[in-house]
Amino acid sequence: MIAGLFAGLLALLATGIPVGIGIGIVGIVAGYVGMGEASLAALPSTLFAGINSFLLIAIPLFILMSEILSRGGVTEILFNTVTRWLGHLPGGLAVSAVVTSAIGASITGSSVANAASMAIVCVPPLLARGYDRRFSYGLVAAAGTLGIMIPPSIPMLLYGEITEESIGALFMAGIIPGLLITAALIAYTVVVCSRGGVAEAIPKASWAERWEATTRAIPAMMLPIIVVGGIYSGTFTPTEAAAVGVTWALIVGVLIYRTVGVRQIVAALRSTLISTSLILVIIAGSNVLGAAVTRLQISQDMLAMVQALDLPSWAFIACTMVLLFILGMILEVISIIFIILPILHPIIVSLGVDPIWYAVIFTLNMEIALITPPVGMVLYVMTGILKRPITEIIQGVLPFVGVLIGCLIILMIFPGLSTWLPNLLR
User: Fold this and answer.
1) Residue 196: predicted pLDDT
2) In this protein, which residues make up the domain named TRAP C4-dicarboxylate transport system permease DctM subunit (predicted)?
3) How far are the Cα atoms of 89, 368, 394 from residue 399, in angstroms, in the given order?
């Protein structure tokens, strides 16, 4: 049954139909086959139930926060600050790009938004200093994917919405893996740059210049502390935290940096409306499919199959990681979350697997999906911004896919890297 659902979905998507609508059609057909006309009568309430959630209000708010900061030139301010501290080191400009992306991830929640702003700000200086074109593209694309691992993370928020896991715990679980990925990208960058020696060095900044730049960046860097700290301390819910984040972003952009005006706010609202609408259509369609999956008891059938095969939990986890990697090459990340997670989560829990740890390796797999062809969204975003052939972006990003896969293996072998911090702060 599950194979038939996937085959039908892929066939529909191959026609070019929007993902959310395609998922919904498959769900309607599956529900009709399983329940008959009763499933059609329940369709309106099923669609509404999919998006009738207070927690989901956080999605447009986090997107709006990211849009305001992006249009306010915050990424450029952060990159300038990090470059003042690290730019004079060997490969320092490339390392600065990775560090800036990690900081940017903590104030966007979206890999696509993070990669887009990094492509605009970091790629031109890298090329101007003599860094290899493909290496620069791959570095910025891979570092941009940190946006969904380092909190606040929209996919983590959706994971918590589906599984009812603590959003605070999920956000905290992403911090150490995010730092691990950042360190791995820096290490690879240093190794690559130490071989060539063609990049032009940046003059070392004075201490006065460093502190001046750092002081200017502090208001923006306070945002993740306010948002994540507020959630975990219980000061406000994730939705309230997103609203506070938007308020602080406006204060930073309008009053402190004075780079955001009415035109930027209107553009941010328009972009947020478009992005949110696309996400909500996917969520609504996925809820229709999820209802059909529940009625057809597909999760129970899969659990029975796993139990019959007598697979150890680690083998099942490894199989799901391979499945997610394959799906990531042909489906968009939010679609995968809403299609696969409702099926996998009950099985994961029944096998005694820590769902917080699984959320981290699931999210890292989705990071990889963002930069793997043919559907990797970050690839297309960078192609549109840089006006370069997508084949050139893909060639540059392939070595970094290997780095991320290496990080995934490490996190699978050492679950404590993901669970230690949430457990410590409980």
Assistant:
1) 67
2) 6-417
3) 23, 12, 10
Q: What is the pLDDT of residue 336?
A: 87
- In this prediction, residue 335 carries a pLDDT of 83
**Taking a C-beta distance cutoff of 8 angstroms, is the pair 337, 159 a contact?**
yes
What DSSP letter does each residue of 309-327 carry, written as one string?
A: HT--HHHHHHHHHHHHHHH
- Provide the residue type at 180 as one letter: L
Q: How far apart are CA 130 and CA 35, in angstroms?
A: 63
Average pLDDT over residues 76-89: 93
Q: Is the pTM of this model over 0.85?
A: yes
Q: Which domain holds residue 64?
A: 2-424
Into how many domains does the chain fold? 1
Task: Report the pLDDT averaged over residues 252-275.
Answer: 94
84: its two tokens: 């003042």
- Higher per-residue confidence, 142 vs 107: 142
Cα separation, 397 vs 136, in Å, equals 9
Please count the other Cβ atoms lying within 10 Å of the Cβ belonging to residue 424.
Answer: 8
Q: How far apart are CA 329 and CA 331, in angstroms?
A: 6
* ∠ CA 284-234-350, rounded to 5°: 55
Distance (Å, whole) CA 418 – CA 425: 13
| Cα–Cα distance, 380 to 92 (Å, whole number) | 27
47-65: b (≥16 Cβ within 10 Å) or e: beebeeeebbbbbbbbbbb
Closest CA to 351 of 410, 392, 411, 306: 306
Is the alpha carbon torsion for 110, 112, 116, 121 positive or negative?
A: positive
SS3 89: coil
The yes-or-no verdict on residue 7 having pLDDT over 80 is no
Question: Has residue 249 got a pLDDT over 90?
Answer: yes
Mean predicted confidence (pLDDT) in 363-372: 94
Q: Which segment, 31-40, 115-124, 200-209, is predicted with the most confidence on average?
A: 115-124
| Spatial distance between the Cα atoms of 179 and 143, rounded to a whole number of angstroms | 11
Longest dimension (CA), the chain: 73
Give residue for tokens 């305001």: 68
Crossing angle of helices 111-128 and 92-105, in 10° steps, is 160
Q: Return d(Cα 265, Cα 278) in angstroms, integer.
A: 20
The tokens for 106 are: 């903590």
Residue 86 has, within 13 A of its CA and on its CB side, a CA count of 18
Q: Which H/E stretch holds residue 33?
A: helix 19-35
